[in-house]
Request: fold
Amino acid sequence: MAGTYYISGYCSIQNSRIMLNGEEYFSAPGAMFTDFAKQAYKYAETDYAKFFKMDNLSKLSFLAAELLLNKQPYSSNTALLFANASSSLDTDVKYNESITDTENYFPSPAVFVYTLPNICMGEISIRHKLYTENSFFIFGGFNAEFFANYAAILLDTNKAETVLCGWVEFFKDDYKAFMYLVSKEGTIEHTEKNIQTLYLS
Reply:
C-alpha cells in the first residue's frame, strides 16, 4: 500500500533570485548568472572550491541542493530525481565551439566532463555523501505527475528514505531550478497539484 509523503522543504532559483520555502533568500537584480552564482555562493557561506570549476547547470543545481540540504534533515540514503528540457545543451554548445575551429583546436577536458546532464547529480552526491539511486530525465516541460509518482515508488519500495527532486534547466543564461525534498514528515502533502503549485509560485 502506497504511503503518504510530504514536501519538507523547497527552493527555486530564477532571474537572479533565490526563494527558499516560499521566502526570498537572496537576490542580485540584473546580474548575469555567472556573477549571480558567485554572489549567492558567498552569501550562503559555502566552502567548496570545486564549485568554481563547474558548468552552469551544475552550479545552478548545486546551489539549490546546498540550500535545501543545509536546512532540512536528510540521510545518505537520499535519492536524486532530476529532469530538464535541454539536457546539457548549454555546455555541449560551448564544447562544440572549442573543436570546430581547425586553426584554434583546443578541446577542453574541463568542459567535456560536463557534457552529460547527470554530472550535476554527481557533484551533489560527492558534496553531501549521498549513496543511493539517482536518475536524470529529459522532458519537454516540467512534469509534476512524473515527480509525484516516481518519488513515491522510491519511498514505497525502500530504495530511499528521502528523495531530492529537481527541475534544473539552463540554456544560454535562461535558467530555472525548482528543487524539493520528499520525506515521511512535513506539512505540504506530496501531490501532483501541490508540486505544480510550488513550481509556479
Summary: The chain is about 35% helix and 25% strand. Strands lie at 6-14, 17-20, 23-27, 78-84, 134-138, 162-171, 174-183, 188-189. The radius of gyration is 17 Å. The CA atoms of residues 117 and 164 lie 16 Å apart.
